[in-house]
C-alpha cells in the first residue's frame, strides 16, 4: 500500500488558474481592443448609413481598373468610374475597395451613390464596396473580444494538478 501524502497547495498556486498573470493582462487587452474595434466598426456603419440616407443615386461607367499588388504580390483591381451629378457635371472617382479577381470590367455600367453637397464623394453600389470596412472591423473586434473573455474565464478556473502526492 502506498503511503498517504497530504498535499497542501500554497496560496499562489491555488489562485493561479490556467492563465499566467501576463496572460490575464493580455486577455484584458484583447477585450479592450475588441470593444474598440466593434465601436469603430459601428461608427463606420453609422457614417455609411448617414451617407446613403442623403446620397443621390445615378448610373456610371467603369473607365479604368487600377491594378495594385497586395502583400503577397497578388493583383488587386480597384474600379475607377465616371458619373454625372444632377446638374449634369461629369465626375471621376475611385472605389474605396478592390477585389481579386476583378469584380468589374472597363465599360461596365454601375450604380453609384454620391453626395449632392460634395459630388466628388462617391461609392459604387454593392455590399462589399459599401459595408466591408464596418463588417471587417466588427468581425475582428468580436473575435478579439470573445477570445479575451474566454481567457478571462479560463483564468478563473481552479487548477487541477495530477501526479504523485496530489489530491491524496
UniProtKB/TrEMBL annotation:
Domain DUF3592: 58-127
Top-rank taxon, per record: Bacteria
InterPro entries per the UniProt record, alphabetical: DUF3592
Name of protein: DUF3592 domain-containing protein
Organism, as annotated: Capsulimonas corticalis
One Pfam family here: DUF3592
